[in-house]
Amino acid sequence: MDDEKTVNSETKQPIGHSSAPKSADGFEIALRESEALLRRTNNLLEAVTSGADVIVAVVDTNYKYIFFNEAYKEEIKRLTGKEIEIGASLPETYDGMPKQRDIAKEHRSRVLRGEIVEPYRIEFGDPGRYRRVYSVRQSPIRDAEGNIIAAGEVAFDITERALAEQALNRNAKRDELLSETATRLLMADNPQALVEELCEKVMKFLDCQAFFNFLVDEPAGKLHLNACAGIPKEEADRIKWLDYGIAVCGCVARDGCRIIAEDIQHVPDPRTELVKSYGIQAYCCHPLLSHGGTIGTLSFGTKTRTSFSEEDISMMKGVADLVAVAMQRMHTVQALSKTKEDLKKSRDELEERVRERTAELVEVNIKLAEEITERVTAQEAVSIERQRMMDVLNLLPAYVILLSPDYRVPFANRFFVERFGKSNGMRCYEYLFNRTEPCEVAKRTKS
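RE: above sequence
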């Protein structure tokens, strides 16, 4: 409260109140009493904060420490490598760390000027030494007359919480990006044209500066550059065709196996010479696999770090799998279209031949050809849509199973199988819950 004053329990005088002693002896006594009170106050504060996850410090108007608890002292040692004592200068403590010194001084200057400083979160420290995230509250300390005589700070180290929040946010953005990628690729009639747009989004999310998508050209016996980003157009034209076994992508396409290259600028490898010339430091290339064969490659490269995290590599593989499924779907649709064209051509030829015969035979054969065409088209369309649905279910980051009337599991998506395993013909309640009869949820689902 603004009206309240801290009182010395021995002298009954408010702290900061001058009783204006008339003699030198009286002044010395008052000084000793003030020093003793300050020591007791500091001891009390240290006792209250000892063992707690709270970091406390107070500096006077000259930015000299007049109090700090043990937690603050240890944190300063981790940040600066220095042991501080009461009376030490805060700016001098951060010598050699000018950016951090200016930040620390500026916040306290605002408090000492009487400004209202709202609680804030700050990432503080030298990235090359020790850097943490803190939740900080700062407030002025006033004397009995209301004059600001010091700035107090209470902080909590919330680094783990901040990292967890950052990971959650990143995972949410990753899932959103993968969901968008899956939806657009699997719904597009020509996913090949979408690869560049979608992979640029993935590239930025992964903090990469280049990506390359090569597709197998079977008639040419080579790889054809379908999409890329991060290199000049003339360079893209130069690598438009790539032989099997040449560079990283050619080796991945030849062998059907992923290659991860790290610290490229310092690790000699003939396969990475091409991407090394682009300034790339880490590079990851996945094969696009379909029905046991390789139909292309998808790779990402970064110029800002020498390696990738497991999470980054996992996302790259997920995107590569989505691109592969979409490309295979496109090829299937194209094959179906060609089949329909061939069937139409065959029908036309048949009609021409039977036209030379009797009108009755022509009519019979035309109907037969139309029926064959419709059945083949319908069967292939059903097969494509069934496979498409299964592919989408397998890519969903959720548990999906289908139950038969007798509680068996004819289908479980990849996400479910990786978590619970295969049913191997057992009923759902047997292999999931080790029960001998259906649970209430299964019964209600069946009804």
